[in-house]
Write a structure and sequence with these properties.
The chain is an all-alpha fold. 78% of the residues lie in helices and 0% in strands. The protein contains nine helices and no strands. It is found in: Membrane. It comes from Streptomyces hintoniae. InterPro entries: K_chnl_dom, VG_K_chnl.
Length: 259
């Protein structure tokens, strides 16, 4: 009796993911604040910038430790690495070239992977969070690389948010555009992400309509089947009445049917 219960118990890795999910989300908020503070406040002191940079690396280190612990708690480690190779790339990426933008990309990748593990997060909530996150971090990233560019025209946070919004929606008014190579790479990422999210939203809406139509079709099918069954019963009763009338035992004949 106890063996089936033990087999149904969650594994050590699953228990670890459940325990660390909320703390890692809290660290993500701390990373967002540390990343945004020196960019929004261009006159931030060197000490504040150093603290924010240390906070960013600390959050990345926490995600790296989380990945290593999950790997250690997994019996089939090769299969885990093959299935979670984006996590490994996100952990290794900042070590290849210690840029703040790489730490931003790696943290977003790790948060996205952990968020998809939570079954209570629905697709609509995930898409909305992705849109807000990309809009916010895309604006901050392009502002950090374009504000001091010699020929840049994205100088304020408002310009950066407007540019990110028009880029994600693939509108592209052209009043603001990145002039540096890194800024253009950010623009390409935002455009591809915007197209992907638009496709997800469109597919989600289409799936909702299809499910609604299928539900209506099922109800209509059940009504049709009920009507056909009732019609068959009425026909069977008519046939039985006709048979009784033919034998002279039916109503109107004056006879009493035999026991």
């Amino acid at each position: 009796m106890t063996e089936p219960q033990a087999s149904n118990a969650p594994s050590a890795r699953v228990r670890w993911e459940r325990v660390t999910q909320r703390p890692l989300l809290g660290l993500t908020v701390a990373f967002a604040v540390a990343y945004a503070a020196p960019i929004v406040d261009s006159s931030a002191s060197r000490s504040l910038t150093s603290v924010c940079t240390a906070a960013e690396w600390t959050v990345w280190a926490c995600f790296a430790v989380d990945h290593l612990v999950r790997l250690a708690l997994t019996p089939r480690r090769r299969a885990f690495v093959r299935a979670h190779w984006p996590d490994l790339c996100a952990v290794v990426l900042p070590l290849l070239q210690p840029l703040r933008l790489l730490r931003l990309v790696s943290t977003l990748l790790l948060v996205g992977r952990r968020a998809r593990m939570a079954s209570q997060i629905r697709l609509t909530t995930y898409v909305a969070g992705s849109v807000i996150g990309l809009l916010m971090f895309g604006s901050l990233a392009v502002l950090s690389v374009e504000r001091d560019a010699p020929h840049g025209n994205i100088r304020t946070l408002g310009d950066a948010v407007w540019w990110s919004f028009t880029t994600m929606t693939t509108v592209g008014y052209g009043d603001h555009a990145p002039t540096t190579g890194l800024g253009r790479m950010i623009a390409v990422g935002l455009m591809l992400s915007g197209i992907a999210l638009l496709g997800v939203v469109t597919a989600n809406i289409a799936a909702w309509f299809i499910a609604r139509f299928d539900k209506d079709d099922d109800e209509e099918r059940r009504r049709t089947e009920a009507i056909e069954a009732l019609t068959a019963e009425v026909r069977a009763l008519r046939a039985e009445v006709a048979a009784l009338a033919a034998r002279g035992d039916g109503p109107g004949t004056g006879r009493v049917p035999r026991g």
